[in-house]
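Repro case for the chain-ordering regression, as requested:
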Amino acid sequence: MEQLLKVENLKVSFFTDEGEIRAVDGISFDIEKGSVTAIVGESGCGKTVTALAIMGLIQPPGKIIDGSIMYQGKELIKMNEAEYRKIRGAEITMMFQNPKAALNPLLTVGKQLTEVICYHKKVNRLEAKRQGYKQLRRVGISEPERVMRCYPHELSGGMAQKVMMAIALSCNPKLLIADEPTSSIDVISQAVILEMLKNLKSQTEISVLIITHDITAASILADKIIVIYAGKVVESGNKERVLNNPQHPYTRGLLNSAALIKKGKHLEPIKGNPVNCLNLPKGCRFSPRCSQVMKICLEREPILFDVKENHKAACWSIHPFKTET
Amino acid sequence: MLNFVIKRTVSMIVVILFIVTLTFVLMHAIPGSPFTDKKKLPESIRKNIEKRYHLDEPFLKQYCDYILNMFKGDLGLSLRYEGRRVNDIIKKGFPVSATLGLLSIFFSLMTGIPLGILSAIKHRMWIDRFILVLTTFAASVPGFVSATVLIYFFSVKLGWFPAALWGSPSQMVLPVLALSLYPGALIARLMRNSMVDVLSQDYISVVRAWGLPCYAVIWKHAFKNAVLPIITHLGPMSAGILTGSFVIEKIFALPGLGQHFVTSIINRDYTVIMGVTVFYSVLLVLMNFLVDMVCCFIDPRVKM
Amino acid sequence: MPKITKAIFQNVEIPQMDCQILRNHKVKSYWAVVFQRFKKNKPAMLGVYLILLIVIMVVFGPVLSHHSYSDQNLSAANLPPSPGYWFGTDHLGRDVFIRVLYGARISLAVGFFSSIINLTIGVVYGGVSGLIGGWVDNLMMRIVEMIYAIPLTLYVILLMVVFDAGLKNVFIAIGIVYWLETARIVRGQVISLKERDYVVAARSMGAGRFHILFKHLIPNCIGPVMVTMSFNIPAAIFTEAFLSFIGLGVSAPMASLGTLVNDALLSIWSYPWQVLFPSAAITVIILAFNLIGDGLKDAFDPRYYQ
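-- result from build under test --
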């Protein structure tokens, strides 16, 4: 398949009073055309920062300090604001975690929706409104006329997320980044949103990058799963390979703590808390929480090893020396 | 909407009554009669004068009469100037004070808001720091200091503008400048903080993620949200401008109400003090009411 | 860096908790962080140094000088600044430098005492309102709302008219007016603590409720109350200067900075130093306190921290 986006060795730091926080520490992955990729990890592990970096929306004190983001052969990191703006919204677009905070409270839904259409498609207000109705119907809103006149605080969380999706999709983007699209809305709306994201793939050519802490949601939607821990990729690969044969203890932990997959069996939470990015442990970042620590884990950081084709993991336990013993 | 207006009007009337009562009680808490202190008047004459001002009547009757007259729009007679009504003093002085005050509010908004926005957009850059230093300094200069310094440089040294009196535009420059320095600085700081706050909100990242141009992000989305605190601040700000105007009118010898107020304080002209205080308080309460209405109009989240 | 050999692929046991503590050792207390942030804030530290300098000058300056604030010397009237009279003399031949120092003394005293009165009233009012709760709390907060709506400086003026001039009256008039913010903060904290307190109180069989409340109340309130105080002090100084300027402040021969400016205002054309030095002094004092206030605000709430 053709490559749409290629992220290589991305490093993003936040410079605070307490020191440099390396939120994203050398992440690489790529997204193919028409595929759904999921980035999975706990909160604070650098998922959202990765998404914002792709959008070019890292604000000070944050800064991209290294790496490259290639979109269809163009380097995004070196782009200026004006060029980037043509990509944002029209080519790459994003849905945010908390849909109610993501809409401007002082403007009606209609104003915000038509504004985006007007700007990117260069059409007049009337035409934009017509297209807006179509978009709202497409995401399953039955009374678009009423919703258009609503202010964001009058919408429910699920409804607001649908509106966000309608706006995000209004200009037929090639890549949709969905940052925790379901985490702050009620369960029924969650199912609806997930269903819609799933259908998206079959309806259009769009690629989706889903960012979530919920490995269940990822397993429903994604073709490919990337697991991130403390700003680094710890395991990545085809959905089936990663889910059926997880290599990294963190991935196993995530799977064990997900309720849906292990129906009937008791849940096993991962021990300990996510590490503090300000002072990372020496060696493997996961070692303080790992149940099978080896000497080398405390000394050296593992790199991504190939497990199989399209399946990589960063754990010393799959090193040939270990498998021999 | 109507419900909201009625509710606010009722609470406004309660606040006004509270203010009048407080003022009345305070002014009558001054020991002795206003005519006993200075000159030794013969007993009979004093009695006569007190009768004229109804000071011989019981406290409650005076109070009720005052409230009734106030709602009729009559604030009584001056104690020191024979036959002058407080209403006349207000009518004569207020237009000058109002012009000065409105010009100052306008000028401080016109300078403070753009400075605040500029500062927020260039957050943490040198221009932000510069504006911050400038406004911190300006917010520390009392009105009488800024007025005297302005007079010293622009009238005494350079002779560009007259240092006193009121009427021509060139006479308005220095008083307005002196009066709007402090509120202007305050608005700039408020605007900066509120703009920085808004710019870090999710919905701003969102409109950026949709690729809208910079001016749309700043003006359509950020500005309207960020200016709300400025509007709510207009109430306290006009109170500050009002008290500031006492000083400015005194320094520039403007024939405004503030000047009369200060004179009446020195003369212990109690009815004028009371009348002007009540007048100003009501004015500010009305101002707050107006601000509330504007906010309610702009922000759909405010419950009507 | 160890060589990769088979030997280091042995499992090792590490007790989980130890690791956590060992690896996240650099945890600072809230107060240490606040203090560190404040210390890093250069303008705020400048404010602290300025205040220290002013306090030292105000305390020791008059002792070291051979002039006194009321000594008149008509033969040396209206002299410009010189080595003998640093800030020149006024129309009665009094040394302006010493008079400015005494004026600054009054300003600092007003700032200090008025804000103590503010603080006391605010803490008591807010504490009582929050502790009693119910309709009393409701009524008390309605009153606060009402007072919020009225122009307070006007009422300081009225109080001064009622009390008559004098330093003590200035403290009181300013002190009993600007306590609303403190009261609101304290009340909010008390109410949020009361809710938590039920849990604690139930566990400890109802004992030591007030003890617990005050043990938690003070550390919780201290931040926001300190910030409010740090803005109340310059506001009080501001108000005092304003009152003196319109002739309602301290009584003669005492002279605050506002009085000095007012007295010399007419001579600005011929003897500008008599106006400019006290003006500069009041500005520097207020500026220093504002810098400290901004620093405290940033230290407690680092959103706008630069």
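Ordering looks correct now. Residues 56 and 79 of chain A are 9 Å apart (CA to CA).
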